[in-house]
Amino acid sequence: MMNVYPNVEHKECIGHLYSNFKKHFHGEFFSKKLWGAAKTYRLTEYDRLLKEIGDVSQDAITYLNKNHNKIWSRSKFGTTSKCDYITNNIYQNHLILGLVHCVINLCFPRCDREKIMKRFDKNRRVVKNWNGSLVPIAKNYLNNISKAICRSSNTQAEVKCNGRRWEVSLDEKKCSCRVWQVKGIPCVHIAAFIAFIRDDWEKYVDAYFTIEKYKKAYALEIAPMPDNDQWMEKTGRKYTIQSSDG
């Protein structure tokens, strides 16, 4: 995979990582700390949790460094793809036209190709019923959040939340919690400031979450295929395909 996509961010699924990790280091302590380190957006919090693991077992840290040296914590995610998933589901953001060129060809096992065809068709039909400019997941997220504001300018402020203080900047599109930068949707601190100044929060949502981009993501039409016995012949030999059933 590193050779096929050398210029993209290579992440590791925390679910698979933990399945391997717990064979050697099990218990609630390790589970809580490792998953916490994966979920946090802040590098300082990641370092603190890894240090706590190391204080109990330095062998655990050695194991992680040796066997799981790809990116698996949100605190180390880049800010380009706007995808904060830490498990390896199919990420819609990675299908955005122009970000990843996805080629569906005969090398795909038959069942996988059909699943992708059905999903693309379903999502093309679903989006026809959506209104506005943002996809529902972005709308619902922003409608459910809203904190003590100490404004320093029209675009900068300190936001107090749950006993902690966060620095937000609308111009730079960043918050010190890093959620906005990684996820592409304003975090609770940014959303609170936007509500405070009575601005339109939709313009602060990354373009990946617009209905227009969603339509582009599923615009690719995967051509139907006839059964094997209907394939064309060339120089006396049939083209073959490697399918899941052999």
Automatic annotation (TrEMBL):
This is SWIM-type domain-containing protein. PANTHER family: POLYPROTEIN, PUTATIVE-RELATED. One of its GO terms (molecular function) is zinc ion binding. Residues 166-198 form the SWIM-type domain. The keyword Zinc applies. The keyword Phosphoprotein does not apply. It holds the Pfam family SWIM. Keywords: Metal-binding, Zinc, Zinc-finger. InterPro entries: Znf_PMZ (IPR006564), Znf_SWIM (IPR007527). It comes from the Eukaryota.
